[in-house]
Write a sequence for this structure.
């Protein structure tokens, strides 16, 4: 009887754990690298893969977050994951602990300002951050394959600072993409209790059937 | 023995930890917007450095300094404004918003759009301003460097720079230098170009 209650409780926990997750939206922007460590910045120490980046490489930044962005104003988003990737260099950075997106009206454009804070180094505003500022058409805020442009006077459009500002990777921003309501991939740490609950349910069922089998015998 | 090893390791690592943080707070458009937008208020003494240009929207101030002992290094970048007019609401690209002392602002460009307040340190005393290019697109610009300022290597061909004596201004150019004399102590202007009022 007790094991049945445990089974029910664990089943509820498991179901809640899987269904209580909010849907995530994904913002992606990309462009070309305009400053790399070969230009004299760095060398990167916390993330040595950044040393492989070259000027002219295509890079992309993906921000996976809970909730959505559909209006102007600051959006201190709840970050699921954020990554900077330069596939041709085999370089990536995923150690982002928080992010913020601000959308400002600028005539027929929206100015997008993004700050991603790294968990490495001495602190976000002490030179461990990814900054991006670019403009997109108003109709493109929640659209796919949108052309992005630099905001006059605000260059570089993308700036990845690491190692307390010693490493400074810069780039243009030419493309923007918004995907709404994507079920986020569970983090490994979230899978552990869910997996444990499933194992516990199977085990208790196995025990119960074994016990019933012994009773019939 | 173990305690001695731990103590030695602690002593050995202490300088490394100290050097890891140089305490310079970096400012750029993204950090400003993430902090709630302009005006970006500096409320802690210390060293601040731009890592990108700043674009300040209409009728708001850019950077507001509310505390003494602040060094602001523009790091060669530009703070550009739209409408920061002489008339109310009296905004400026950089301004002191309290009676502060010991400000240092250096190494960058301030660009106004039209009849713009670029720097307003009227409530500050003992500031240092150096290596600044100050321009406006049209209509002129105005700056007040406060009381007892030391000023050098400022280039502001179409604007007015006002200082309250005592003050030292050297190797600088402005359309007009304005001196405000409250006490008997005079201002010293050396190797300057522009009309002195």
């Amino acid at each position: 009887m007790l094991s049945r209650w445990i089974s029910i409780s664990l089943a509820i926990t498991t179901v809640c754990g899987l269904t209580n997750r909010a849907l995530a939206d994904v913002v992606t922007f990309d462009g070309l690298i305009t400053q790399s460590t070969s230009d004299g910045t760095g060398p990167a120490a916390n993330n040595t893969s950044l040393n492989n980046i070259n000027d002219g490489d295509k890079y992309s930044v993906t921000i996976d977050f809970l909730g959505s962005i559909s209006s102007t104003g600051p959006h201190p988003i709840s970050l699921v994951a954020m990554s900077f990737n330069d596939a041709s260099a085999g370089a990536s950075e995923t150690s982002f602990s928080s992010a913020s997106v601000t959308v400002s009206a600028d005539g027929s454009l929206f100015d997008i300002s993004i700050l991603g804070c790294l968990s490495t180094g001495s602190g976000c505003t002490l030179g461990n951050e990814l900054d991006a500022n670019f403009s997109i058409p108003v109709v493109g805020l929640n659209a796919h394959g949108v052309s992005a442009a630099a905001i006059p006077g605000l260059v570089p459009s993308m700036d990845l600072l690491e190692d307390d500002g010693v490493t400074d990777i810069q780039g243009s921003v030419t493309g923007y993409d918004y995907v709404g309501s994507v079920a986020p991939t569970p983090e490994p740490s979230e899978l552990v209790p869910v997996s444990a609950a499933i194992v516990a349910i199977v085990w208790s069922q196995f025990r119960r059937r074994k016990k019933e089998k012994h009773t019939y015998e | 023995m173990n305690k001695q090893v731990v103590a030695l390791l602690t002593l050995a690592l202490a300088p490394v930890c100290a050097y890891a943080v140089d305490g310079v707070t970096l400012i750029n458009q993204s950090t400003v917007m993430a902090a709630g937008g302009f005006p970006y208020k500096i409320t802690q003494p210390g060293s601040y450095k731009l890592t990108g240009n700043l674009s300040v929207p209409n009728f708001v101030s850019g950077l507001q300094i509310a505390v003494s002992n602040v060094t602001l290094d523009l790091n060669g970048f530009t703070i550009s404004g739209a409408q920061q007019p002489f008339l109310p609401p009296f905004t400026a690209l950089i301004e002191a918003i309290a009676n502060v002392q010991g400000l240092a602002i250096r190494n960058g460009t301030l660009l106004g759009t039209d009849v713009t307040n670029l720097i307003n340190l009227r409530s500050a005393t003992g500031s240092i301003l150096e290596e600044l290019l100050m321009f406006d697109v049209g209509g002129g610009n105005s700056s007040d460097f406060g009381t007892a300022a030391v000023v050098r290597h400022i280039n502001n061909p179409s604007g007015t720079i006002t200082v309250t004596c005592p003050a030292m201004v050297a190797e600088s150019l402005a359309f007009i230098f304005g001196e405000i004399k409250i006490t008997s102590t005079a201002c010293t202007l050396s190797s300057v170009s522009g009309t002195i009022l």
